[in-house]
Amino acid sequence: MRVAVVGAGSIGLAVAWRAAQAGADVVVHDPEPGSGASRVAAGMIAPVTEAHYGEEALVPFMAESADAWPGFAHELEQASGLDVGFRDVPTLLVGLEDGDRAEIDRQAELYRRTARQVETLTGRAVRKVEPLLSHRIRGGILASEDRAVDPRAVHAALLIAAERAGVALRREPVADLGAIDADQVVVAAGCGSARFGSASDYPVRTLNHPVRTSWMLPVRPVRGAVLRLRAVGDQPTPRTTVRGYVKGHSVYIVTRENGEVVVGATSDERGFDQSTGTAGAAYDLLRWSIELVPEIAEYHLAEVTVGFRPGTPDNLPLIGRLDERTIAATGHYRNGIALIPATAIAVAALLGDDESAAPEAFDPRRFGNGESAETDGRSLNEGTAKRLAEPFSGAPESILRTGSDIPSGRRSRGRSDAGDDTRHTDAEGAAP
Ligand SMILES: Cc1cc2nc3c(=O)[nH]c(=O)nc-3n(C[C@H](O)[C@H](O)[C@H](O)COP(=O)(O)OP(=O)(O)OC[C@H]3O[C@@H](n4cnc5c(N)ncnc54)[C@H](O)[C@@H]3O)c2cc1C
C-alpha cells in the first residue's frame, strides 16, 4: 500500500514510521519538517493534570498514550540512536493563595472522578518532594502518572527512525490532496490541516468516479508562548514537573536532564501572529514561575518561542477516517506530544482497515457542517445516503457518513481556559 502523510510534525512522522514498519510504502510531504507546534511544546505527558472539565472523553486515550510512552521512547531511541529526554517524573500541582488552592481542589475532584491517581500533600510534604518550591506554598497534589519528554529530541529522532524504516520525505507543501499519487492519504498538518477541509472533488479509486467530499477539518491556531531557560553550573533544577496557580493564573515548569527548564504557556487567538505580545508573555511567565520556584530567577533565559496549538471546537483531536482514501490525524491542541504513541497506533490500525481503532469521540466528521456531499450530482444530504450505498456495496460506510448522517458530537465553543494557559485575550475571553 502506498501511503502519503501530509505534515512532518511529530504526529505525521510517528504515523509514517509506524506505517512503514507495517510494510507500507510511505512518503511524507512537508516544506519545513518540525517547524510547527512540535518544536515549541514543553513536552508534558499529563493524563492527570491535563484532564479538564468538558474534555473527559480524552482521558482514557491520554492514559493509554502515557502508558505507551516508556516503550515508545525506548524503541525510538533504539531506532534513531538519539536520547529523547523521556523522564518518568511526577507532576506536582500547587497553589499559592486560598483561591488557587480552591482551584486545585476542584481539579482534584475531576482527576479522582476520571479514575486518575492523585495524592493530596501538605506544604511540608510538597517541599519534601520538590525542595525548590517556595515556602509560601502550603499544599498541593502529586500526580504520579504524569511524565515528560523533550519534543525537539523526539522530532529529531522520529526523522531518523522514519527514514531508516524507508519513509521518503518530500520537502514541498501539499496544496491539493487529490493531486497526491497514493492509495491512502493521512492529513497530519497541524494548524495547516484546515485548508484541506472543504467540499472538493477527487477520485475515490474503488468507485471509479469523483466523489465530492463534504468533510471539514475545523482546526484553528491557538497561540502559545513558552520560555526556555538554562541552569548554569551546579544550579539546582526542579526534580518534578511543577504546575501551579498563582493568583488565578496557571503556569508550568518542565525540567530536562540536560539543565533546560521550560516555562509555559500563554494562550490567545490572533491567527498566525508571531510578532506581538512576547514581551508581556515573558514577563508574566517569569513572575508567576518565580513565585512558585524562586530559583528560576537565577537561570539563563535562553529563548522565548511562540507556537500554535492545533485547536478544535471541542478541544478533542480529529483522528479517524474522512473518506475511503483519507484519514485525519490532527487537531491535537494542547496534547499532541502526549498523544504521539496512541495516535500512531490508531492510524496504523485504520490503515489496516480497523475502523474501530480510534475513539468515536474523535471522529473527524463529528462537526458535520451541513455541506452537501455529492456523487454524480446527487446529494448525500437529502436522505439518499443509504440508497446510494447499494450500488457501491464495496465502499466502506465512512464515505456515506456525511452531512446529517454524522453524529454531531459536542459542539461546545472552543475553551480558552486550558490548563497550560496563562493569558486569555481571545474574543471568547474567560480570563481566569
Ligand atoms: C506553547 C505550547 C506548548 C505545548 N505544550 C505541550 C505539552 O507540554 N504536551 C503536549 O502533549 N503538547 C503540547 N503542545 C501541543 C503540541 O505541540 C501539538 O499538539 C503537537 O505538536 C501537534 O503536532 P502535529 O504534528 O500535529 O503538528 P505540528 O507540529 O504543528 O506539525 C505540522 C506540520 O505540518 C506541516 N504542514 C502544514 N501545512 C502543510 C501543507 N499544506 N503541506 C505539507 N505540510 C504542511 C508543517 O510544516 C508542520 O511541520 C504545546 C503546544 C504549544 C504551542
TrEMBL record:
SUPFAM superfamilies: FAD-linked reductases, C-terminal domain, FAD/NAD(P)-binding domain
Coiled coil region boundaries: none
Keywords, in A-Z order: Oxidoreductase, Thiamine biosynthesis
GO biological process, one term: thiamine biosynthetic process
Spans annotated as Disordered: 359-432
InterPro entries: D-isomer_DH_CS1, FAD-dep_OxRdtase, FAD/NAD-bd_sf, Gly_oxidase_ThiO
Feature: compositional bias, Basic and acidic residues: 375-389, 414-432
Pathway note: Cofactor biosynthesis; thiamine diphosphate biosynthesis
Organism classification: Bacteria, Bacillati, Actinomycetota, Actinomycetes, Glycomycetales
EC number: 1.4.3.19
Keyword check for Isomerase: no
Residues covered by the FAD dependent oxidoreductase domain: 2-350
Recorded GO CC terms: cytoplasm
Catalytic activities: glycine + O2 + H2O = glyoxylate + H2O2 + NH4(+)
Short name of any one Pfam family annotated for the protein: DAO
One Gene Ontology molecular-function label: flavin adenine dinucleotide binding
Signal sequence segment: none
Protein name from the UniProt record: glycine oxidase
